[in-house]
């Protein structure tokens, strides 16, 4: 995959990823800011601001004008806010790339943030919070993050992205403007276009429009380093039909020497329907419909975690089964065939995830935000290939330690002591 990277005088980076064989084009504008860059009073502001970008610009007076123009060309468009990035994107048939680029540029640079729309949108954001509260599968990570990042004291990574309702009800237009100027600066903004498009024309348009973005230093964030010395349990007591759990440990940041080893370890334990945890938790014992392992990474920290939804009465059995797999992978060497299968699965899923213009655009922008460069797929595949069985066991022993365990739960449970006893066993 070819990436052409251009840097404007104000520091904004442009990534062009031509894919002449495709019929689509995707425009992504991403800034390296999110809930991690908020103080406690601002928590929820980054996400709320993302909503407000679609409420009108100086050229497109309201949300209807923006959505009708994009709907009129059959665009797939949206935005998302994470802890460390916020992105706006539109995917269109290749003949409409000019429209997608013009609208995304307009909402990013010229949103008017009308006060009356802020007032109305409060209700929509609060309903979004309520919607997720009704789906514990999508909020268990909030409980886990508060546990793994918050027990050493208040930290932005421990807070939710959507923020508390009291904040949403209190934000003023001035706070939006202040946050926007502080966090949306050229040095932490990426404009990426991937797919079939006229490179010279697109580059000229981006240069012309984004050169006016005022200079400013990229926002700073509070770093995090885990000092955990004992296992921890957090329970959000809630009447549900199923118990949601996340069981994980602190792990590695971006660009750690063992990040590919950790990816292979995660795949062996919980990647795919032939992974160890899927076989043991679901196939052999019927404890869960879904069980999987994943890795979360930031520039300074990260974690490895197993997620599952289980019957209330079988929570302890599920935790015991997961912990048994942790112990097993630390003690018993991998077979060559299992290592080979995990590598092939990981390389295959990564390759498939980069087939389309939208995925390529988002991956390229995210890579620059996290690493300062676009990490090519070939580099990732090569890193996976170099992982040895001994490396996987070494990393398992390094991170899967009793004193580092964190168990987060949503469900009708109150007994932390018995669960802590399980973790210490």
Question: How would you summarize the topology of this molecule?
Answer:
Blueprint: E1 4-7, E2 13-18, E3 24-31, H1 45-52, H2 63-71, E4 76-81, E5 86-93, H3 97-110, H4 115-133, H5 140-150, H6 165-170, H7 173-183, E6 189-195, H8 199-210, E7 232-237, E8 243-250, H9 259-270, H10 276-284, E9 288-297, E10 302-310, H11 315-331, H12 336-352, H13 357-371, H14 377-385, H15 389-399, E11 406-411, H16 416-424
Parallel strand pairs: 2-6, 7-11
Antiparallel strand pairs: 1-2, 3-5, 3-6, 4-5, 8-10, 8-11, 9-10
Give a structural overview.
The protein has 425 residues and is α+β, with helices and mostly antiparallel strands. It folds into 2 domains: 4-210, Metalloenzyme, LuxS/M16 peptidase-like (Cytochrome Bc1 Complex, Chain A, domain 1); 232-424, Metalloenzyme, LuxS/M16 peptidase-like (Cytochrome Bc1 Complex, Chain A, domain 1). The chain is 44% helix and 18% strand. It is built from 16 helices and 11 strands. It has helices at 45-52, 63-71, 97-110, 115-133, 140-150, 165-170, 173-183, 199-210, 259-270, 276-284, 315-331, 336-352, 357-371, 377-385, 389-399, 416-424; strands at 4-7, 13-18, 24-31, 76-81, 86-93, 189-195, 232-237, 243-250, 288-297, 302-310, 406-411. The strands form 2 sheets. Strands 1-2-6-3-5-4 form a 6-stranded mixed β-sheet, with helices on both faces. The protein is globular. The termini are far apart.
